[in-house]
Input
Amino acid sequence: MGRTGLFGGTFNPVHNGHIHLAKEAFLSLGLERLILIPSNIPPHKNAEELCSNEDRLAMCRLAAEEHGFEVSDYEMRRGGKSYSFYTVGYFSKLYPDDELFLLVGSDMFLSFDKWFRFEDILKKVTLSVISRQDDDTELLKKKAGELQIYGSTEVVDVPAYPVSSTQIRNMIKTNENFSCYLPEKVVQYIRLKNLYK
Ligand code: ATP
Output
């Protein structure tokens, strides 16, 4: 039986905050496999500035290969809105003997009880959160307590790495230097394809 981390997101683009979450969760939770799952249409976000599935998938692959993480195009193949309920169902059938961990940042964790069929998701995974800002740990612990009646949760208590894709897209638009927030190969890809201008 293995320990597999599922890490979904828009990844528009994938950045060092995502990689920080993945690396810390991988170590703290003792994972054997971590899978980045870029969404098709994100249910919780405005998709206006979304770049193509092909580009987001390619950037995830570039970021993941450096750390030995996997990337799945399941949500993109499935099409429509990417509800984690279906994604978790798919991976629990694919890896029936594995213990599954669903990895999220604090914003998603705090709104998790609004997600489509969140109670059913929590029957299949341990919901594991990493803070996005250093002062929200108490809030996360309180929410973890509330969610515990539905299933298990885990607060991975490490310092935050506060950066967002929105911030990076804005920096690109205004010609600021954004390269320190992304893996080098992703920076090169964005420049080559002239994304987010
Ligand atoms: P946007 O700014 O476009 O809304 P984002 O930076 O929040 O994007 P997403 O791809 O939507 O990135 O996030 C995917 C997952 O990664 C979510 O669970 C989110 O909470 C988490 N995450 C994003 N950035 C960080 C960060 N800096 N630290 C920890 N978790 C993060």
